[in-house]
Write a structure and sequence with these properties.
Length: about 90
Amino acid sequence: MGQKKIKEQSKDNKEFIFGKRNYKFMFIGLSCIALGFILMSGGGSDDPNVFNEDIFSFRRIRLAPTLVLIGFGIQIYAILTGKGESDTKK
C-alpha cells in the first residue's frame, strides 16, 4: 500500500529543480566558459625550433582566463538563486 502511494506522488511531482531564469543564466555561463576556452586555444608552432610569441598575447593570458572565471561565477549564481516568482506561479 505504501509503495503505491509513493508511485502516485512521484507521478504528480514532475517539476524541474530550477526555473526558467536559472537555466538562462546557466546557458550564459556555459557560453562564457566555452568562449574563454576557444580564445585560449591555438598559438602553437609547427616547427619546434621556432618560438612563437603569440602564446603570450593579451587574449590568451588575460582575456580568456577572465572569461572562464566569469562564466564559473555566473554558473554559481544560477545554481544558488531560487526560482523566480514567474516560474513558481504555474
